[in-house]
């Protein structure tokens, strides 16, 4: 029954959308889809494993997606859109297809199916990125398609190599793979291809180039979903194959690769955060930084492994709220260059405070859950003797924190005679995400 609701209702809603000519009715259909999704997420949490055999990793990603879908659906109720009803209808249809594809990737345990669903997210989200039909948004969508297609191709090669690694009874269902007969050499090569391939979709350096353009050009709700949900979806197959590597005694190689790609991603983010003038691109580079931190956490192991999952949860909520707040700023100023704007607290106090709170929480100030995750990562690094990594990471995080807060102060402070109010949903949606993140930061979840 749960699976029918999860995939059947949006399919029905898509058919209904084709006959609707009212934005409000389309928005209500998307909202109903989000509420059903959230209800299924709550049921899956209470009745573990009841929704299509969902495991703990799938449950975490699914719950995050449920919360973000609800916030974005409510945000859309107050978001101004000047496109034609035809374009808005197509946009809403592909939004639901995008969510369905992410659901499939989160729930699937067969690597072949995961690959298909991740590829479906690429196609559907490319159309969402190019929604404005500006030259820059079309270029961003094509760049996203090209780079992610290269990554997906590498991931597919890795999956084929995993089949080669199994001389007898080859399967892509992780739980059915016989580790006693698997070839360590081909498994190792397979994991490298899968890490680089799906890591491209995750926005990890050095194949991160699509992410700043895509996040900058997409509408605010789509940017929130890309950063808060899609990047997590790309991590799922990596973590599923990660179990095979550790069970085969190659955990050290995995951790070295995670640390290398993670540190490189944080370094790239630090460099470009100081150089970019587009505040949406700045948030995109912050996503690259946080994906890097997640990989560093898994690379360190121990308590940092728990921190990795906590960081996934905290970053998804806070960054989605931040992108929605950036959407408010763009609606007010019609300009993404932070050097050309200012006085947000005077013009729109609600959005100004949301920006400052989001800035504080994304850099890890309490009660942000990222404070705890970063603390656990740092202490694990020191405990394992990664002193060079620790020193470099602390320096890079300081640079990133200064860059984000400096931009936030420039946007929010200053005088302005202008006043502009927005629809209440444009405050409530990001505020709700930040509130949930703060509650998690105070009452830390227990992970088994």
Description:
With 448 residues, the chain is mainly alpha-helical. It has a domain at 302-448. The protein is 77% helix and 0% strand. It has 17 helices and no strands. Helix 5 packs antiparallel against helix 9 and helix 11 runs antiparallel to helix 12 (303-333). The chain is globular, with a radius of gyration of 21 Å.
Could you name the key traits of this structure?
448 residues, mainly alpha, 17 helices
Query: Unreliable stretches, pLDDT < 50, 5 or more residues?
Result: none
Q: How far is the first residue's CA from the last residue's CA?
A: 28 Å
Overall 3D form: globular
Q: If helices are DSSP runs of H or I spanning 4 or more residues, what is the number of helices? A: 17
Instruction: Summarize the main sheet.
Output: none
Q: What class do helices, strands and sheet pairing give?
A: mainly alpha
Q: What oligomeric arrangement do these chains adopt?
A: single chain
Question: What are the secondary-structure elements, in order, as H or E?
Answer: HHHHHHHHHHHHHHHHH
Compact overview of the structure:
By secondary structure, this protein is an all-alpha fold.
SSE arrangement:
Layout (H helix, E strand, L loop, with lengths): L1 H16 L5 H24 L9 H23 L6 H23 L3 H19 L5 H30 L19 H19 L7 H8 L2 H28 L3 H23 L5 H22 L2 H31 L10 H4 L1 H14 L6 H15 L3 H26 L12 H18 L6
Helix pairs in contact: 1-2, 1-4, 2-3, 2-4, 3-4, 3-9, 3-12, 3-17, 4-5, 4-9, 5-6, 5-9, 6-7, 6-8, 7-9, 8-9, 8-11, 9-12, 10-11, 10-16, 11-12, 11-15, 12-14, 12-15, 12-17, 14-16, 14-17, 15-17
């Amino acid at each position: 029954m749960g699976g029918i609701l999860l995939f059947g209702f949006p399919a029905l809603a898509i058919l209904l959308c084709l006959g609707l000519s009212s934005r409000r009715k389309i928005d209500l259909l998307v909202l109903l889809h989000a509420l059903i999704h959230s209800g299924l997420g709550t049921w899956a949490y209470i009745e573990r494993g009841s929704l299509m055999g969902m495991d703990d990793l799938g449950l975490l990603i699914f719950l995050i997606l449920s919360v973000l879908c609800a916030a974005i659906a409510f945000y859309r109720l107050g978001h101004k859109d000047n496109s034609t009803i035809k374009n808005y209808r197509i946009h809403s249809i592909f939004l639901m297809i995008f969510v369905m594809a992410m659901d499939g990737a989160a729930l699937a345990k067969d690597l072949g199916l995961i690959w298909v669903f991740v590829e479906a997210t690429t196609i559907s989200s490319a159309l969402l990125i190019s929604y404005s039909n500006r030259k820059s948004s079309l270029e961003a969508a094509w760049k996203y398609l090209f780079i992610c297609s290269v990554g997906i191709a590498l991931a597919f090669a890795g999956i084929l190599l995993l089949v080669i690694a199994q001389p007898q009874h080859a399967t892509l269902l992780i739980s059915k793979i016989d580790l006693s007969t698997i070839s360590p050499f081909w498994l190792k090569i397979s994991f490298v291809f899968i890490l680089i391939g799906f890591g491209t979709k995750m926005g990890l350096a050095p194949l991160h180039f699509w992410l700043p353009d895509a996040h900058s050009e997409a509408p605010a709700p789509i940017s929130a979903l890309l950063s808060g949900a899609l990047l997590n979806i790309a991590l799922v197959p990596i973590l599923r194959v990660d179990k095979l590597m550790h069970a085969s005694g190659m955990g050290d190689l995995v951790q070295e690769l995670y640390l290398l790609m993670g540190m490189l991603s944080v370094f790239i983010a630090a460099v470009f955060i100081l150089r970019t003038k587009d505040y949406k691109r700045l948030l995109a580079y912050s996503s690259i930084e946080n994906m890097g931190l997640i990989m560093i956490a898994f690379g360190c192991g121990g308590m940092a492994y728990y921190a990795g999952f906590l960081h996934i949860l905290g970053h998804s909520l806070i960054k989605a709220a931040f992108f929605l707040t950036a959407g408010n700023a763009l609606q007010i100023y019609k300009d993404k260059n932070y050097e050309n704007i200012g006085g947000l607290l005077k013009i729109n106090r609600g959005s100004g405070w949301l920006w400052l709170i989001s800035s504080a929480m994304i850099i890890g100030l309490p009660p942000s859950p990222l404070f705890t995750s970063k603390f656990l990562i740092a202490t694990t690094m020191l405990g394992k003797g990664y002193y060079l990594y620790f020193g470099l990471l602390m320096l890079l995080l300081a640079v990133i924190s200064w860059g984000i807060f400096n931009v936030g102060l420039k946007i929010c402070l200053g005088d302005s005679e202008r006043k502009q109010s927005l629809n209440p949903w444009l405050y409530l949606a990001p505020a709700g995400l930040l509130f949930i993140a703060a509650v998690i930061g105070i009452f830390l979840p227990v992970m088994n």
